[in-house]
Amino acid sequence: MTDTEASSTKAGSRNAGIREVARQAGVSIATVSRVFNNAEVVNSETRERIVALASSLGYEPSALGRNLVRGRSYLIGLIVPNVSFPLYGAMIHGIEDVLGRHGMSVLLASSHDAAATEVRAAQNILRHAVDGGIVINSIVGDALPTQRQLGWVHVTPEPAGLPCRVELDNEEGGRLAALELLRTGRQHFAYVGAKGRESADRERGFALTLRKMGFDYRRFEGDYSEESGMRASAELLAGPLDGVFAAGDLMAAGVLRALHARGIKIPDQVAVVGFDDAAIAPLLYPRLTSIRQPAYAMGASAAELSLNLMSGRHNAPIIFPPELVARESTGPPQASF
Amino acid sequence: MTDTEASSTKAGSRNAGIREVARQAGVSIATVSRVFNNAEVVNSETRERIVALASSLGYEPSALGRNLVRGRSYLIGLIVPNVSFPLYGAMIHGIEDVLGRHGMSVLLASSHDAAATEVRAAQNILRHAVDGGIVINSIVGDALPTQRQLGWVHVTPEPAGLPCRVELDNEEGGRLAALELLRTGRQHFAYVGAKGRESADRERGFALTLRKMGFDYRRFEGDYSEESGMRASAELLAGPLDGVFAAGDLMAAGVLRALHARGIKIPDQVAVVGFDDAAIAPLLYPRLTSIRQPAYAMGASAAELSLNLMSGRHNAPIIFPPELVARESTGPPQASF
DNA sequence: TTGTAGGCGTTATCAT
DNA sequence: ATGATAACGCCTACAA
Question: Domains in chain A, ordered, with CATH?
C-alpha cells in the first residue's frame, strides 16, 4: 500500500486534504486553514482561488482533525426514556433548535426507563467526547457517570438535589385542574394518581385548592396506564362523583372509557381533566381537557443550561408553569359540523 | 495561561492523557495504547499496573484522538421528519439497538417535513464526519447532500429509484384491510386516502382485493389529518356505507368521531380500519383496528443496511409486510369489565 | 513483550 | 497577508 502516493494522486479514494489544496494553490496550509476560519483576514484574490480549488477538489475541513485540535466535539449527549412519547418529542425539538443555533448537534440514546440501560446510554455518549449532556427523567440521577468537567443537565422533578435542572411546577398543575373542575360547578371530586413525586406534587396542588373552597376528594393510585384509569373509574363510581383529575392523559383515557362503558355522559354527569396534554388528548372521545407542559420551552431551556455549563457559567434550576387546555371533557362540546 | 504547566501538573483541570499515564507507569505510550486496544498482547502484569494507574488518574482514551487516527467517527446520522410521531419512535428504537450493538451512535436531526430543513439537517450531520446516514421519509430523496463515499439509507416508499432502501409493502396493507372488512360481512365500502404514493399503493391493494370479490368502493382524498377524516365521513354518508378503510390512524379517528356525532354504531353499522397502528389506535373509541407497520424491524434493517454500506457491501431494497391488528372497530367489543 | 517514530488533518502562535 | 511549525491525543507498523 503506497499510501502517500495514493492520497496525493488518486483523487476520490480519499478526499483531498488541506495539504493537497495548499500545494495546488501554491500557498501554505495555514492560508488554506484561514480561508475556512477567518476568511476576512486573507487576501480576497487568493481566497477566491482557494475556495474555487477546494470546491473543485471536493475539499472541506475534516471535523475529526478540527475537533482534535480544538478539544471539542460539538456534540451534546441526550438521554431520553422513550423517543416515542410525544412530550419528549417536543422537548427534543426545543433542544435541537437551540443547539443547532449554536452549531452543536444531538447525540441520542434511549434509557427505556431502566437504570442499567440509562447508565449504558451515558457511557456510550461519554465515549464520544461530548461537550455536554442532557437527561430527561433520569432514574439514577446524580449517579450518572461523567468525565472531565462535564455536567449533566436534568429535566426532571426529582431528586430535588440535582444542581442543574429544568422542571415543571406540578403543584400549580394540580391547582389549575381543581380550578377548572370548580369552574364547571363540580362537587364530588376524585384524584387518580400514581407513585412518585410528580404525582404527589400534582395532588398537593389539587388538594390545597379544593380544601380552600371547602371540598374534599377521594383518591385512587394507578400507574399511568389506561388500564389503571379504568380500574379507578370502577372503584370511584361506588360513591358520588362528578369531577375527576387524572395525573396522566393515558389514565384519563381509561377513565373516559370506563365511564362510557357505563353509559355515563361526559361532561354532563362527570368532568375529566388529564395531565401532559399529550397528542392523544384532543383525539379522545370526548376531547380531553388537560394540563399542558410547555415541553418545547423546557427542552430549549435545558439546552441553554447545557450551553452555559460548557462555558463555565452555572444557572439556578428553572421551573416552568403548566397551562390549562380546556376541551370537551369539562365543558360543552365544541361546535362540530 | 501557562497551559503546559497546568496540563502536566494540576490534575483535574484537564484529565491525564496517554503520555502522563505512560510516564507514571514507566512505559511507552505505545504500551498504554495497546492496553486499551489489543489488551491480550501486553504482559498481564504491566497491563494490570497500567489499568490501575489509568483508572486512578481518571484516564480513558480520547475519542477525539482515536477518531482522527482511525478516520472514523462511529456516528450515524439520522434524519427524522418528526421525533414525536410514535411510528418513528419505534424505528429509532430499532436503529439504536442495532447500531449500539456495533459500537455506533445516533446523531439526530429533524427535518420537520420541510425540504430546506432536511437539507440543512443533512449538512449539519455531514459536518460531524459521520460514517453513515439514515433518512426516514425523505422529501428531497437522492438530492440529499453527501460527501466522501457516504451513502444515505432511505426508509421510504418513494422515489423507487433510491438504491439503498427499506420500505413497507403498502399494497399488501390495503389487501389486509379489505380482507378484514370482507370477513366481517361488509358490502358498501369507502377508501379515505391522501396524496402521494403511499396512499396510492394502499388503495391499489384495497381495490384489487375488493374487485376480485365483485365489490366496488367510493373514495375520498384527505390529508392524513383528523379533520379530513371527519369531512370524509360527512361526504361518504350521503350514500350507503358499512366499511371504511382510512390510509392513516388520524384520519380514521376523524371518521370515528364523525360517525359517532351522527349516532352511528361502530362496528355494528359501520366498520373502520386505520393504518400504521400508531399509539392512538388502541385508545380511540371504539378501539381501532389498524394495519401495523413493523417499525422496529424496519429501523433495525435500515441500521444494518447502513452498517453494510460502510463496509462497502451493498444490499437490495428490503420490503416489509404489514400486519393486521384487529380491535373493536371491526369486530365485537372486547370484554371490558 | 515492548519501544521508536511517523502520521492522522487541523488550528494557532510566532515570525516574516 | 502569509509561511513555518508546534501542538492536539492517539494508533500502528517496524524495529528491537
Answer: 3-61 (1.10.260.40), 74-168+295-320 (3.40.50.2300), 170-293 (3.40.50.2300)
